[in-house]
Each structure stands twice: as C-alpha cells, then as structure tokens.
Amino acid sequence: KMNTLRVEAESAHEKNAELVAKIKALEQENLQKEQEITSLSHRNQLLEADVEKLEEKVKELKTSADSGATSSQEVESLQRKVQLLEEEAEEADKNLRETNEKLRLTDVKAEHYERKVATVEAERDQWEKKYEEICEKLKQCQKELADVNAALDSM
Questions:
Q1: What is the DSSP track for the chain?
Q2: pTM for this prediction
Q3: Which one, of 101, 90, 109, lies nearest residue 33 by Cα?
Q4: What pLDDT band is residue 135 in, cutting at 50, 70 and 90?
Q5: What is the rounded radius of gyration, in angstroms, for the C-alpha atoms of the chain?
Q6: pLDDT tens, 45-61?
Q7: C-alpha pair distances (Å), 88 with each of 37, 112, 146
C-alpha cells in the first residue's frame, strides 16, 4: 500500500515537472510572438511612412505632369510603388492580427496549464499528507506490536 502511494506520489511529481516544462515552452513561444508583433509593428510604421512619402511625391509629380509626358510615366511608376507598398502594409497588418490571435491562444493555453499544475500540486500535497499519516500510523502499530511482544515475552 505504501509502495502504491510512493508510485502515485512519484507520478504526480513527474506530471508536475511535465506541466512546468510545457508552461516554460508556452512562455517562450509567447515571448517570440511578442517580439514578432513588435517587429511587424515597426515594419508597418516604416512602410506607412514610405507610403506617405510616395503619395506626396505622386502629388508633386501630378502637378508637374502637365509639363511633359515623362512625368506621367514617373507618376504611373510611383503609383504602382504606392499600391505595392499599400498591399505590403495590408499584408503586414494581416500578419500582425494573426500573430496577436496566436498570442492570445498561447496565453489561454498557458493559463490552462498553470491551472493544471496547481491542481496536480494540490493532489501531490494531499498524497504527501496521506503518506505522512500512514507512516505515523505504521510507527504507532510497530510500537504497539513491540509492546505486545514484550508483554508476551515477560509472561
């Protein structure tokens, strides 16, 4: 019976260690997602700044387009660049939203595993308490047995 309790206590300790490792992995993944979000946000800001610069240049070139046909070609080229940059910015926004969703899901998983760890730790504490109580009862029984044997020997 004590061996069973020991096996169960060891099992609980192993399960606890596994859950702690999972939490650490999820926290690392969470940190990576946050860094990716920061990187994407920074890139998005740079792209938006480029878009604004190019839009201003497009406006300037549109006003000077009246002066020649070559200006209209530059305007078209810049408009294509603006469109490409806007598409890149939209893609970066989409990636940012997806990463935020993944981060949220990772946080939910981490909370779930933290609750599991707390439950397993509580179970482990109960098993340790039961083990200590049984050990104490065993010591009492051994003492009573020794007393009975001593009484029998004296008879």
A1: -HHHHHHHHHHHHHHHHHHHHHHHHHHHHHHHHHHHHHHHHHHHHHHHHHHHHHHHHHHHHHHHGGG-HHHHHHHHHHHHHHHHHHHHHHHHHHHHHHHHHHHHHHHHHHHHHHHHHHHHHHHHHHHHHHHHHHHHHHHHHHHHHHHHHHHHHH-
A2: 0.43
A3: 101
A4: very high
A5: 35
A6: 999 999 999 999 988 87
A7: 16, 36, 85
